[in-house]
Amino acid sequence: MKKSLKFSFSFLLIAILMFSLAACNNASKSETKKLEKVRIAEVTRSIFYAPQYVALAKGFFKAEGLDVTLTTTPGGDKTMTALISGGADVALVGSETSIYVYAQGANDPVINFAQLTQTDGTFLVARDKIDNFSWDLLKGKTFLGQRKGGMPQMVGEFVLKKHGIDPHKDLNLIQNIDFANIANAFASGTGEFVQLFEPTASIFEKEGKGHIVASFGKESGHVPYTTFMAKESYMKENKATIEKFTRAVYKAQKWVESHSAEEIAKAVEPYFPDTDLAIMTTVVERYKSQGSFATDPILDEEEWNNLQNIMKEAGELPKEVNHKTLVNTEVAEKVIKK
To answer: Where is it chiefly localized (predicted)?
Structure first.
């Protein structure tokens, strides 16, 4: 009788355990099903966008109930094409692209809703080591610049003019090389100066291929260099999703602000498997020290006007656009208040 009772009790325990595991699995599956899919198209893969990768790596998007997939679509034109055609829900790209689309008479304009970076992310790299750099050293030299019409090129020209250099008269400006091949062109011997993003600039310095002599980000001031944006129709139809997305971004921004460069580099390391951790740490520290990472997602009017001034100076502003027309700060403001 006792054996029978023991057997029954053991069987009951096993049954309860199996039921609990099944319930947990079903709950887990249910949670997975509840996650809402959001597709991001990023203009390039860059440590400059560290807060975005932190949001992914630390599960901030998932905690908001979002299943975020990230695709790199090199170039602003390709990124906007992906967004407008429905190939992506959200784009991470320079704010100038939203102005270009609007100026073309888009029926469904692209709205900036969360700022990620607030300075230019490029650096001036010289082929030879310069102990006492001054901008006038560029005069008469060959300068390998960025693609015409993009933010790096416009900021580059803005900074050169700020230092009394006419980029089209005072130096030999090369702008016809594709973004992905600029670094290779410089490494192969083209130009005496080049405008590069990180980590390429630091890698070149480590390998002796060039020397960082100035920061375009420090020189140009605050500007909405890279923002998350979506079509107006998507934002209206998915208000809760946009709020959750922005909240995750804000959490990541605060995390980046409160952690060391080394901790940030380790967090985003999976997204840069071919980059040395020491180089990544140097890059993150450089961006942090010059305030490149936005500490909140609000794109304010002053930054927006600075962007348009830079575009106008470069002769690339198709028309002036009011801040409220293409920028939505309501979501970001709501997230911050909460």
So the answer is: periplasm
